[in-house]
Amino acid sequence: MVIGQRPKGTDSEKRVVVIGGGTGSYAVLRGLKQYTSGLTAVVTMMDSGGSSGRLRDELGLLPPGDLRQCLVALSPDGQTTLTLRNLFLYRFDRGKGLNGHSFGNLFLSALMEVSGDVNQAVKIAGRMLGIKGQVLPVTLTDCHLCARLADGSVIVGESHIDVRTEKPQVPIESVFLDPQAEANLPVLEALAQADAIVIGPGDLYSSVIPNLLVRGIPEAIKASPAVKIYVCNLMTKAGETDGFTASMFVQEIMRYLGPGASLDYAVVNTGSFPAALLKRYAEEGALPVHPDLDACAELVSRVSTGDVMASGSLLRHDPAKLAGLVMDLVGRQPATLVGAGPRPALSSSAR
Amino acid sequence: MVIGQRPKGTDSEKRVVVIGGGTGSYAVLRGLKQYTSGLTAVVTMMDSGGSSGRLRDELGLLPPGDLRQCLVALSPDGQTTLTLRNLFLYRFDRGKGLNGHSFGNLFLSALMEVSGDVNQAVKIAGRMLGIKGQVLPVTLTDCHLCARLADGSVIVGESHIDVRTEKPQVPIESVFLDPQAEANLPVLEALAQADAIVIGPGDLYSSVIPNLLVRGIPEAIKASPAVKIYVCNLMTKAGETDGFTASMFVQEIMRYLGPGASLDYAVVNTGSFPAALLKRYAEEGALPVHPDLDACAELVSRVSTGDVMASGSLLRHDPAKLAGLVMDLVGRQPATLVGAGPRPALSSSAR
Fold first, then answer.
1. Are B317 and B28 in contact (CB under 8 A)?
2. What is residue A87's three-state secondary structure?
């Protein structure tokens, strides 16, 4: 072994592609960046609400919000001085035209305008933020997410699917993009070269599946030699996944990956939920996802279970627990943590 | 002489304080940064128009526009890659709430909000931009510039003085601040330690003199051991300095510096003006400032003359010519240029 040269294939060099956008990807990326500098975040570009939606409508740019969240997730933590990261997290709370705008969104919008190239803009922002890895829009096509409901009607726009005001009781039959979107080429390259592909967690129809609707993405995932892992949500979501069990999440992912697809692992939470929090979530129509492990096992090669929940006031995946588990699945047992922090205790059962 | 240690007092260590704000300061700073890394830009905080005025009104922050211009002036030129500097120069050209906002202004506003401290915000922005020297708001008091006209009426707000729509024919009698503003402490320190203080160029009543209206600033200038230089404007300005000769500019500066003040130098342009440009400026009521050098010489110790104009489509001071002249006056003849670029030829007559 040559001194000063690390052996190939250590965790710190693992190429892991995380597919999603929003809060779910944020947790996965924050955890995984402790293990590897070879992260790629593939981000949905169908957001149409809030600050992103306004920028999209008024400036005609791709929505920057999910890109921003993933950039922040991959930026260095624990800076003592005020940095660009803090600014990215800032949201204007007053001002006629600025109220509600995230500064990070304005930053990305200005960069897209000045550079005239979305991939370039995100790359520059990443460099300025000192991120580990890369963030890639799944597509550069300006398109909208649409949902066909069980009654045949169609909802247009991610924000109307994310927060169902129209017919919230009618289930989603399927989702599609209008117009059809083409894959961003660097995403296809990242998928082809990946050691692992992590799909989810995140809102099933409004954050995760939109990535799989982009032409070329399911094929690239299927063709990739990577270990393929789906991380199932902890909670159902009103108007989107009401009554869904774990296997129903997995089934929908398989459906949008298309014929011939296979997942190596599904990660399903089996930790217990604090009662007080469940009550609050139930008021918003969100219930724990039932871990029907046997049904899951009929869909994927192996089911990985354990407590992957964060403590705190929100029912979220714990970045460290989730990343530890994912890195185990990627092929090294036990995973060796790059950087500091104890490795979380985790029981992982497989079938 | 110790190897690796530069002799004290070289040009690159000269502490030069530039007082103004806006386009005039931009030119001086861009030129002087080639000579010294000890620059301080003292910036008026009375702007009430444009993007700055909107942010001031809507967010209740100090106006960032002049700070931004000086930060850009002191940031490194000639980057080949897209940098924060390019973003600072970008202005949104559409979008209901964003149209007309300079990104640099939004950046500084967000920094002020997140840091909760204007001096700190400007310092951090300076560090991010990699500036040479420092930029300081002349005051942290939220105040407005007011002009008393010759007919006794009062105009409130810098933007209404800068662009005179009210009674443009009635001359300005005097300007004052409401409420009275207190000096920003680091400005007093910079003035006390300065080797040179450069006042102007810039709009007399709306950019330069507002700095001298801040309590403590005239006293600090008078008490400073620095060489004191006033750089006279090239052109008069409609509604502000109509018919002004060079000595009238100097006289107004002396008046607002107050009793006991002295200027070591007045820099007066004696270069000739391209006729085509003069015609265009005349249409806006702007005429060349007549260099009444004898009258000037009765007000200041020495009058420095020469061609300090830039070539191009605007009648502006040339950064390199002006900086070369100023550095000569600061005490080293001829000035030694730090960094690249030829030293401009300049005839400098003194009395």
1. yes
2. helix
- Please state, in angstroms and as integers, the Cα–Cα distance from residue B1 to each residue in A50, A210, B8, B89, B347, following that order: 63, 69, 11, 44, 35
CA quadruple A32, A33, A36, A39: dihedral positive or negative?
positive
In the three-class reduction of DSSP (H, G, I as helix; E, B as strand; rest coil), residue A261 is classed as coil
Task: Write the DSSP string, B164-231.
Answer: --SSTTSPEEEEEEESPPBBPHHHHHHHHT-SEEEE--S-IIIIIHHHHTSBTHHHHHHH--SEEEEE
Task: Kindly list the domain boundaries of chain A, sorted by start residue.
Answer: 19-43+182-350, 45-137
Interface check for A50 against chain B (CB to CB < 8 A): the answer is no
Closest CA to A45 of A141, A147, A124, A169: A141
Q: Tell me whether the omega of the peptide bond preceding residue A179 falls within 30 degrees of 0, making it cis.
A: yes
- pTM, to two decimals: 0.88
A90/B113 Cβ within 8 A: yes
**Does the ipTM surpass 0.90?**
no
- CA B236, B241, B244, B248 torsion: positive or negative? negative
Distance CA A247, CA A245 (A): 5
CA A162 to centroid of chain Cα atoms: 15
Determine the Cα–Cα distance for residues B299 and A270; give it in Å rounded to an integer: 85
Cα A289-A292-A296 angle, rounded to 5 deg: 110
Q: Mean per-residue pLDDT for B100-117?
A: 95
Instruction: Quote the CA–CA distance of A33 and A326 in Å, as a whole number.
Output: 12
- Mapping DSSP to helix (H, G, I), strand (E, B) and coil, where does residue A317 land? strand
Average pLDDT over residues B268-289: 95
Whether B59 sits inside 8 A of A95 (CB atoms) is yes
The answer, for B98 touching chain A at a CB cutoff of 8 Å, is yes
CATH superfamily of A19-43+182-350: CofD-like domains (3.40.50.10680)
Q: Is B90 on the interface with A (CB under 8 A)?
A: yes
User: Each residue of B5-32: pLDDT tens digit?
Assistant: 434 457 788 999 999 988 999 999 999 9
